[in-house]
Write a structure and sequence with these properties.
This protein has 242 residues and is an alpha/beta fold. The longest helix is centred in the first third of the chain and has 21 residues.
Length: 242
């Protein structure tokens, strides 16, 4: 089985963090590779960033299809381009926000999300509603750290940990969902510090893909998720024509 984890931003250091998290949970016989998008923003912190990250995501999926990849993880908490990626891929495609939130519903009566910047809170709320877990999502909190600061700020671990602790106390939640792929390597530390389950979406999504491939399941190709119609594209998107 071959799983590809796609980092939708263009920062290789973050891909390395993501790869370590995904690689720690794969089973015997699973080959994993993590790829960095070849085009788009260095981090995703706005609707503008997210929109412009999607072509890079789809290029990585298309390359994976040519190489025989069995399933994919989209390693950004906005799950950018998820529907389009599911149209392209022969195997399952799972976004880390969906995987993390659904996993957290198994761990208690409610969870809190701790994310990076306050401007991304609304997007996380939209995804909770889309995935049908609004009832379980007791709060969404920002620690006001830019995404790239997770790699460079020496106080990042402390800041995120304290934001998670405060979220549990404020919301009365039973679990924490980490709202950024760049937080993946903080999961074990935060869980030990605050005493509740902490869900890293990268690991959760990787195991979900592995399970679906093992079961021989993929996204339905009927209707909306059928392969997109063939047509020409113009300008810089010309290579995306089918």
């Amino acid at each position: 089985m071959r799983i590809r984890v796609v980092n939708p931003n263009t920062t290789r250091a973050m891909t390395d963090t993501i790869e370590r998290s995904a690689g720690a949970v794969i089973g015997p016989g699973t080959r994993l590779d993590a790829v960095t998008s070849e085009m788009g923003p260095e981090s995703i912190e706005s609707h503008y960033d997210e929109a412009l990250s999607v072509p890079g995501v789809l290029a990585a999926i298309a390359q994976g299809e040519r190489e025989g990849v069995d399933g994919y993880v989209l390693a950004c908490f906005g799950d950018p381009g998820l529907d389009a990626a599911r149209e392209l891929a022969a195997g399952p495609v799972i976004g880390i926000a969906e995987a993390a939130m659904r996993t957290a519903t198994h761990l208690g009566r409610g969870f809190s999300v701790v994310t990076t910047l306050g401007r991304t809170v609304g997007r996380a709320a939209d995804l909770a509603e889309r995935y049908g877990v609004q009832r379980f999502c007791l709060g969404i909190h920002a620690c006001e750290l830019p995404v790239l600061a997770l790699e460079t700020d020496p106080d990042a671990r402390k800041i995120v940990t304290e934001a998670c602790r405060e979220a549990v106390e404020r919301d009365g939640s039973d679990a924490i969902v980490l709202g950024c792929a760049g937080m993946a390597d903080l999961c074990a530390h935060i869980g030990a510090e605050i005493g509740v389950p902490v869900v890293d979406g990268v690991a959760a999504a990787t195991l979900t893909v592995q399970s679906l491939v093992t079961l021989g399941l993929r996204t339905s190709g009927r209707g909306e998720y059928a392969a997109p119609p063939s047509k020409a594209y113009r300008g810089v998107l010309r290579p995306f024509g089918r």
